[in-house]
Amino acid sequence: QVQVVESGGGLVQAGGSLRLSCTASGLRFDDYAMGWFRQAPGKEREAVSCINWSGGRTYYTYSTKGRSTISRDNAKNTTYLQMNSLKPEDTAMYYCASGADGSYGGCTRGDFVYWGQGTQVTVSS
After folding, report:
1. Residue 105: what pLDDT?
2. Helix, strand, or coil here: 88?
3. Is residue 3 within 8 Å of residue 115, measured between CB atoms?
4. 111 in helix, strand or coil?
5. What is the structure's pLDDT at 78?
6. How far apart are alpha carbons 95 and 46 in whole angstroms?
7. Which residues of 84-110 are buried (b: 16+ CB within 10 A; e: fewer)?
8. What's the CA gap between 56 and 105, in Å, rounded?
9. What φ, ψ does residue 110 adopt, rounded to 5°?
């Protein structure tokens, strides 16, 4: 049984930083691309950042590019999202996803199979 578990969310002031972590089990972690998505109340779930199996290919959505860094540690079955210079509009539930082909260089929600329950990020102004 595949499990995807996020952690690291919380309440932070604008301009602050957070590091989200995601651990996946029940699958061969380095066979798959990993992704971070977010969903704010009343809005659709959108891509934030994705990374291929080796970490050699990454994708960032325009709104977070330059402020976030995705990485992965295949020995620990974990992927990370470092977010800096956070803004109130970054407030959302952040979801980690796995199951896309390892060589995948995109970040489309429908290409990911396994999803976590989410971790809440709230940025106060």
Report:
1. 80
2. helix
3. no
4. helix
5. 98
6. 10
7. eebeeebbbbbbbbbbbeeebeebeee
8. 9
9. -70, -15
Q: Which two tokens stand for residue 44?
A: 């659709």
pLDDT recorded at residue 100: 87
The C-alpha atoms of residue 95 and residue 121 are separated, in whole angstroms, by 10
The Cα-based distances of 5 to 2, 72, 86, 111 in angstroms read 10, 14, 22, 19
Report the chain (125 residues): mean pLDDT per 10 consecutive residues. 97 98 96 97 96 95 94 98 97 96 88 97 97
Q: What is the torsional sign of CA 60, 65, 66, 67?
A: negative
CA angle, 2 as apex, 73 and 79 as ends, to 5°?
20
Length of the chain: 125
- Per-residue HEC secondary structure of 2-41 comes to CEEEEECCEEEECCCCEEEEEEEECCCHHHEEEEEEEECC
- The H or E element containing residue 48 is strand 46-51
Q: Which two tokens stand for residue 11?
A: 């309440």
Q: What is the pLDDT of residue 125?
A: 93
